[in-house]
Every structure is written in C-alpha cells, then in structure tokens.
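This is your field. Have a critical look at the following sequence-structure pair:

***
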Amino acid sequence: MLRIVYPTCCGMDVHKSFVIACIASTNPQGVTTYKSKRFSTFTGDLRRLAVWLAENDCRDVCMESTGKYWIPIYNILEPTCKNVLAHPKYVKAIHGKKTDKKDAKWIADIFKHDLVSGSFIPPADIRQLRDLVRYHWKLTNFTTGEKNRAQNCLTVSNIKLDDVFSDVFGKASSAIIEHILQDPSKKIKDVSAFRTKGMKASNEEVLAAVDGEMCAEQAEKLRIIRSHMDGLELCKLNLESLILFTAEKYLPQINLVLTVPGIQSFSAIGILSEIGVDMSVFPTSKHLCSWAGLTPQNNESAGKKKTTRISRAGAYIKPLLVQCALCAIRAKQNPEIRNRYLSLKKRRGHKKAIIAIARMLLTAIYNILKKNEPYNPDLYHQSDKPPVHREVSADEAIFILQRQGYLVSKPASTP
C-alpha cells in the first residue's frame, strides 16, 4: 500500500474562467473523504478559495500547469499555501473517463501519495525579472524578422547589397538604403560619399549591387519596416534599463557569474532570471543540467537504448548557454574549456561538443552560486591529472608493456 504523505491536500483542475478544487482528507485509518467546489478565476473568488482551503486546514495544493491560467491562482495562494505546479503529462487522466471533478480528484489522489513531480517556480522577484528578460528575447526575434523582410524587399528589387556588405544594416549600407528611399526612381551614379573606413568592396562593386529597380510599393514597405525597426530598438533600450534596475539587487551574484568564461553582463542576468540565485532547490548540478535540457534522455526498453538525444527542456536558457559556450571556446585565455571542446569535437562532432561545454558552464555556475566563490580554472587543471591509484612505477610500467607483448629493453645505466 502506498504511503500517505499529505493527509490533507487539494488537487485543482485549472481552466480559463473557472477552477475545480478537490480537498482529499485522510484519517488515521486510511479512509479518504473528498470535498469538491467550483470557483471562478476572478480575484475575489480566488480569495474565497484561499479562505475555503484555510477553513479545511489544507496547506498543500497541487495544480496542473494550464497555459498562463495557473499564474493568478498561484499568486493568490502563494502566501498561505505550499503550491506544487505539475506538468500535464504527470497528472493527465485516462481518456474517456475524464470530467473536471474527476480530474481534480485524480490530482488530489496522486498528490497525497507524493507521486507528482513539481515544476521549479522561482520567487516572485525572480519571476518578474524572468518575464522582462524573455520579453527582451522576443523583441530581438521581432527585430531579426524585420531585418529579413527588409532584405527581401531589396532582393525582389534587384538590389544586392548583401553580396558586397557583411552587414546590410551597417553604417554605409544604411546610408545607401536611405538615399534610395528618398527617390527610388533615381539611379545612384557615385558611391564615394558612402564609403567608410572598414569597407572592403570597391566603388564598382557597390555600383553594380545597387543597380536595381525599386517600385513605389516596395519602397513604402521598406520605409514601414525601417520605422518599425527603429521603434523596436527604442523599446529594447527602455526595456534594458528596466532589466538593469530590476536586477540591481542581485549584483553580487551577477558579478560571480561574470567570472565564468564566455558570459557577459546581459547573459549573466538572463541565466539568473531562469535558474534564480538559490541553488538549494536543485539537489545536485546534474539535476540543474537535466532541468535545463543539457543531459541525454533515458529511454531504454528491453535492454535497448532507443535515443540519447537531449530533451526539449530549457527553451530559453539552453540557447543562451550555447551562445556563451561558443564565445568561451574561442577565447585562448581559457585553455581548459577550449581543450575540452577540441577533444570532444574529434570524437563526437561540433554539436555534441558545444552542448557538453554549455553543460560545463552551467555546472560551474551552480557551484559558484552554491559556494559563493568565483570561477576557479585551476580546479579543471587538477581534474585532468590521473587519479593516484593509476600511478605506476617504471618497473610496473615495463611489466605491463611486456604482458601486452612488447619487447622492452631497459636503458643502459649511466656512470
């Protein structure tokens, strides 16, 4: 018989407009009784839900993470209850035997036996910082999309600036585009006024690249795109100042993370916004790496491993750590990371090697935050040395070689 971990607990089936709560109370004889009640998701009714739980002496709550609808309930119950947020795959009931009341009762039943794996939910201030950093990431994606659309406008207009400029939105290229948009029907005959110090393309190559035909519709579309890009850039600047202000209270932890190779200021803030600053919520660094999606899956059946791919977890932190890893392997002042990458790349390829380096950085960050110590590269140099039990004397080494079939002659002793 399964052990009852939570004698009084509540399971919740969360929806957009309402929530079904079911309190499971188990007496010392092991008999469980259930109380179910429906509440709307308006704030006043959620407060009545908190009072109802308190009246029934229920402090442990488990709810299914349904979109963003669980957040208002979590916010109201956070001060008074211990909330466990479960992924739907852990609490989903059998198809064909599902109702809202049965779902809430099922969640309460499996939760009272502690069979639900709760998701990591950082404190409220970290959640706010995470929301801002993720929005900044979205704005960056919007800017990239607008750049691609602007490039498409130039391509369909037979303007090949991307063939002569490494950055189509650089200083010289932007000046040429601005000149074209002033009068699309007028041809550019001299580009010497647009030359900058770092330009590698000759005037003839640039003239050949801008020899196109931009219609009025494409010109207006490009103006709208550029205006939107300027607006996005202004939004990003305002958001960055807000992120820096919000992250100011975590300045000591940010400075510690900045000691890790390949990590810059905004990257450090982004990492802390995802994992928080309290590492006690993760038992080991392996748990953190698994949560971030940087460890192979366990998918074995009948003694056969079906896949060892990394999981899809860590949709925000994993790309960020990969970018930091790409930066770290280029830095020659960090040979412990670069040598590790090169040795793995020979055997497993670039992609698996860069994921291993990202995991290496996250493991270092975990220990840095847990021990409150800066990054120490000497620890990696010590780990490269063979263990003591593998050290052998010269005579033992000769004996091992002879057992392998090698003919070993001892060097003549010098007088």
